[in-house]
Structures are given as C-alpha cells and as structure tokens.
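Notes from the 1:1 (GR / supervisor)

We went over the backlog. Supervisor wanted to see one worked example end to end before approving the batch request, so GR pasted a single chain during the call. The sequence is below; no edits were made to it. Supervisor asked that the structure be written out right there so they could see what the output format looks like.
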Amino acid sequence: MKKLTIVCLLLFSVFTSADNRQSNKKNGHQEEKRHKPEIVKNAFDVLPLNSPVKESTANFLIKVNGSLEIDEVMYKIKNAGKIFEKPTNFQKAILSNGPEGKVLKVNVSKLTPGFYQLFVKIKDKKRNEHFFKTKYKDHAMFVIDSSLEVPMPDPKKNNATIAGVDTDNDGIRDDVQRWINEEFGDQPKVKMAMREAAILRQQSFLNVDDKNASILISKKRLDSNLCLYSIVGNDKGTKLLNGLKSLLLNTKDRIYTDIKINANFSGQSYRLPKINRSNLCNFDVDSF
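Structure output shown during the call:
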C-alpha cells in the first residue's frame, strides 16, 4: 500500500509539471503575440495621380481611412509583365503634402515602360503594420509610358525660335525628346547617352554668342560622343549622332547657328582621354 501511494504521488508530480510547462508555454506565446505588431488591412487607400507616368517620378495619393496616424511608409515594386519575378524589397519613403492629402513619390527613372504593381506598408505611431489591400488586389497598378513623356509640340511654335519648345525644362527640345524615348526606350544606356548628347547640343545653341562658353560646351560634346561610342561602337555611334543632328538642324536659323558654333571652336585642340571612355558619361553606365 505504501509503494502504491508513492507511485501515485510520482505520477501526479509528473503530470502536474507537464501541465505547468504547457501552461507557461501558452502564456509565453500569448505574451510574445501581445508584443508583436498587429497587422491591419484596409486602413488606407493608394491612388495613382499621374498614370501613365510620363516623367521620372510616379505619384500616389495616400488616403487614410479613419484616424490612422502615419509613422513610417514603405513600398516595393513589381513588374506586372514578369509573373515569376519577385518584387523589390520594401524601402522607406518620405511623404509630401499635396492638395488632397499625403503624396508618395516613387522614382521610376530606371524602370522600363510597362505595367507595374506598387505594394505599400504603413506603420502607425503604435508600430502596428497596415498593408494596402482592396477587395480584389493587394497592390496599386500604374503604367510607365516614356514614349509619351512630353506632348509633340506644334511645329510652328517649335520652329519659331532656335531653342524650340521644352515644356518640362529638361534641356531637350520636346520633339527630340520624344524621338529619343521612342527609338531607344528599350536601350537605357543608349537612351541616356543620346539624351546627354541632345542636352549639350541645345546648350550649344543657347550659348552661341558667348565664345568661351561655346568652346567649353563643344569640348563636352566631344566627351559625350566618346561616351556613346563606348556603348555602341564608333560606327553605330556616328550613325546615331547624325540622326540626332538632322533632327536638331531642321530650320535655316538652326543651321546657321550650328555654323557659328563650329566657327567658335575653329583652331581649338582636343586631346583624346587615355581613361576608359565610359568614364566620360555623366551617368553611371554600370547601373543600367
């Protein structure tokens, strides 16, 4: 009888310890869950403001539902046309004030034209996470259409002056800008090099009456030519630059201005650089 009592006490002790461990584990899990940030959905909306995107920045209105206090905003992007491609990692963003509310600005200058998905996550003051989600989607859609970056200008207004029409003030005539975007939209390195060449050509036109400035710009133009050659080779680069030149010199006044630019540079020397020609590009060639 004494042995039976001892065995019962031992069994009771074992089961009691197991129950306590299970209870402690459960309480610990609840405690951990209590401190983990809560994930909340449908707390805000994301509305594209300039899709199709025709410039280097895509803008989205962040419309808060209820009393959500934003502490941190993060976003990631996925190319909708590449089904098996993973979206980029979440990165922090800074909101700016717009007429209708907070605006999220996303740099899309390095993205190719097409359809994209934007995923947005917000942390509130209590560090709870809020994900953008509608009834059917967990992302906002937007389109990048670089071929329509600027409207085609009226020919009379565009050819009335040497400078022509440049509505977005990026240093490139609008008709030239559209041509570059349409011809080289799928060749980002070539597109950047051609933009650089077009900008320097435009600066030559605008500074033709300042001989010193004109000479300096002409040397920079030669540098930009070498930049293009480093990307596509000398023969193809020359062909592309001739195409750009024929588009730029489309009026008598522009042809006469180009003659004066060449006269300003007459007698000057230019030394071919010994360094890698791609180093003469005003953009990071390896990033494209």
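Supervisor's comment: The CA atoms of residues 110 and 287 lie 9 Å apart.
Batch request approved.
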